[in-house]
Write a structure and sequence with these properties.
Residues 71-155 form the DyP dimeric alpha+beta barrel domain. With 450 residues, this protein is α+β, with helices and mostly antiparallel strands. The protein has a domain at 241-431. The chain contains 15 helices and ten strands. It has helices at residues 21-24, 43-53, 78-83, 88-92, 96-100, 106-109, 140-155, 227-230, 245-254, 259-270, 288-291, 303-306, 317-321, 372-383, 439-446, and strands spanning 32-40, 70-76, 131-137, 160-169, 234-243, 338-344, 361-368, 406-410, 417-422, 426-436. A four-stranded antiparallel β-sheet has the order 2-3-1-4. The protein has a four-stranded antiparallel β-sheet with strand order 6-7-5-10, with no helix packed on it. It has a two-stranded antiparallel ribbon with strand order 8-9. Strand 8 (406-410) and strand 9 (417-422) form a beta hairpin.
């Protein structure tokens, strides 16, 4: 049945039972998972595979006991919809960014230099990614069970080929390869019934994340046709990002006078301490006790206590990608995303300052109803430029493309500090734009006829 949340008096009725679980759920903690990309060589085989996958997909919100919760999500690229034989009229109804794909728009979103599509890991950007499967769980045995069923489905379907696999997992530290806790923020979405992570955030309109509902403009976002295909779907930007952990550590070491200053500098660049405690609430030192409290770790805004960024710099990673109520050019609520980062590869050994050659990083999933004004805007304007905060040309200290010439401003009294010659700490290894259909849409796709 449909579920109505309590975000506001005029909350819309959201058809939770038709929205794939992979769209709205926060990432479980701890977690294990796998991403699988498939190529469809025969449209009938592709449709048959969707019919086999349908019983594995689920709708709704997390179970009461999240440790017993696992789910498989099914998404498709534009080329995948073509491969399934979706009518041209429907294909043409998708937004331009989705039809062109991430590789074609790499320059716009800052995937240049060593992050350019020419250097991406195959099959990213080749047009051979048609169906993207993701599976996440807190329970290893349950994840294996779901993956075995998915494997049986695609291996028993001639005409469909696996073209890429990536295992992801939470590191023993519970942190990213850079050493910082992740997965803390989740938006408060009107009508969904799942509390946001920041109790001070007013509910954001459902249509910012799910098609078929009003968004922050008061209008319905453009939706693919027919209605059964578009409604309760959303768009997903999937990215594989390699992290240059040794370069990160060397830069911090070279620009600090000791361990304490090094830790503070890293926190200023991220906006949180390694435990996840935000600088806005604890600017002088890490506070693991605060970080462990789910009611406090994300309970803050910027304008009242830190509008000038003396605690958390305006250019810090978390403040750029979610400015909250900061004084910026534009409206932050128009650019909110559901972000889900998952780690791959081994950690770099503690204290190591030289790269060991291992592939490590994150698979980032960015979910929203508007690819251009959400994911692409954030990448182009907030991550790879600083106009909106009054620092033209400055990029995100962690996620920006610096190429050895980056600068970052850290407000301090009496004189601000300016970091120079930043290298790029992350390298894009590949990315795809996907459409995550509702469950009725998946059935419609599975039952297409020539």
């Amino acid at each position: 049945m449909s579920t109505t949340g309590s975000g506001s008096a005029d909350t819309v009725r959201v058809e939770i039972d038709d929205i794939q679980s992979g769209a709205l759920r926060p990432r479980p903690v701890p977690y294990r998972g796998k991403y699988i990309f498939l190529r469809v060589d025969d449209r009938h085989a592709g449709r048959a595979l969707l019919r086999r996958l349908l019983p594995l997909t689920a709708a709704g919100l997390p179970e009461v006991d999240p440790s017993r919760d696992a789910w498989v999500a099914v998404a498709l690229t534009y080329q995948g919809l073509e491969a399934l034989g979706v009518p041209q009229e429907s294909l043409d109804s998708f937004p331009r960014a989705f039809r062109e794909g991430m590789a074609a728009r790499a320059q716009l979103i800052g995937d240049v230099g060593e992050s350019a599509p020419a250097h991406w890991e195959a099959p990213f950007g080749t047009g051979e990614v048609h169906i993207a499967l993701s599976a996440l769980s807190s329970d290893a045995a349950q994840l294996d069970q779901e993956l075995e069923q998915a494997r049986a489905a695609y291996e028993d379907t001639p005409g469909v080929q696996v073209v890429w696999r990536q295992d992801v997992h939470q590191l023993p530290t519970g942190r990213t390869t850079f050493g910082f806790r992740d997965g803390i923020s989740h938006p408060n979405i009107e009508g969904v019934g799942l509390p946001g992570s920041n109790p001070q955030e007013l509910p954001i309109k459902t249509g910012e994340f799910i098609l078929g509902y009003p968004d922050e403009t008061g209008n319905l976002p453009p939706m693919p046709s027919p209605d059964v295909l578009g409604r309760n779907g959303t768009y997903v930007a999937v990215r594989k990002i390699h992290t240059n952990v040794a370069a990160w550590r060397r830069y911090l070491r070279a620009n600090s006078s000791g361990a304490e200053e090094e830790a503070l500098l890293a926190a200023k660049m991220v906006g949180r301490w390694p435990s996840g405690a935000p600088l806005t609430l604890t600017p002088e030192r890490d506070d693991p006790e605060l970080a462990a409290d789910p009611h406090r770790v994300n309970n803050f805004l910027y304008r009242e206590n830190d509008d000038r960024g003396f605690r958390c710099p305006a250019g810090a990673h978390i403040r750029r990608t979610n400015p909250r109520d900061s004084t910026i050019i534009g409206d932050a609520r128009m650019h909110r995303l559901i972000r889900r980062g998952t780690t791959y590869g081994p950690p770099l050994p503690e204290g190591a300052l030289e790269d060991d050659g291992a592939d490590r990083g994150l698979v980032g999933v960015f979910i929203g109803a508007h690819l251009e004004r959400q994911f692409e805007f954030i990448k182009a304007e907030w991550v790879n430029d600083g106009n909106f905060i009054g620092y033209p040309g400055e990029k995100d200290p962690v996620a920006g493309h610096h190429g050895g010439t980056g600068t970052v401003t850290i407000p301090e009294k009496p004189v601000r500090r300016r970091l120079r010659n930043l290298p790029s700490f992350v390298v894009t290894r590949g990315g795809e734009y996907c459409f995550l259909p509702g469950l009725r849409a998946l059935r419609w796709l599975a039952e297409l006829e020539d």
